[in-house]
Amino acid sequence: MKGFLLFDDYEKMSRAACERIVSVIRDNPRAVLVLATGHSPMLAYRMAVERIGRGNAALSGAVFVKLDEWTGLSRENEATCEYFLEKEFLGPLGIGEENYLHFDPEAPDPDAECRRVRKAYEGLPDPDLVILGIGRNGHLGLNEPAKELEMSAHRVKLDPVTLGHEMLTRAGKPVSEGVTLGIGELFRGKRILLLADGEGKERGLASLKNDLLDTSCPVSLLKLHPGLEVFVNRESFGL
Q1: What is the CATH number of the domain that holds 231?
Q2: Which of the residues 1, 20, 82, 84 could staple to 37 if both were Cys, CB 3.0 to 4.6 A apart?
């Protein structure tokens, strides 16, 4: 498969992902990037912060978009995507609210919050880079396996597999729903970088290599995107 690159370990995969992030920002001072959270992109973000430089004023024209979020948690909760991005990437780079489009985990009306994000996202240029990971159930963001998938930002009931996500182990309270950009919004990206790392994701990775499109494994749809790159940590899959 074109754009399917294997790396010997997590560090090497992360270094290559860092290079993609840095090159996009340097090539376009007004770049738009969609950011996933979790272990897969974490080291790449840390590396990018060191490469770009903390509090770099050259980022004043760039826009960063949070991919998804759990609902019903405080912004300071360590389980939130908000906390992760502020700690690992946006905070160290000095990115303020004017350069950050994000779902608020404390929003009292998640549906209204999705409408707000949807409208703001529509007003942005097509993202230069969309960074994604593979869920254990093959989800993209929180676009969970289903008979039908939504095109734009929406509220979602979490799949039982997602309820076991490592981030939610730190939530301190039950979480049953989330909000996420939709499949159509992800496909607006000029380039999509999918990071394949972690145990139990073999089905999702295999779905990218076959000839089927399967909404019960949403990651399979990425085969349709002409700008897809897949970075694979060989250690995670025994390759």
Answers
A1: 3.40.50.1360
A2: 84
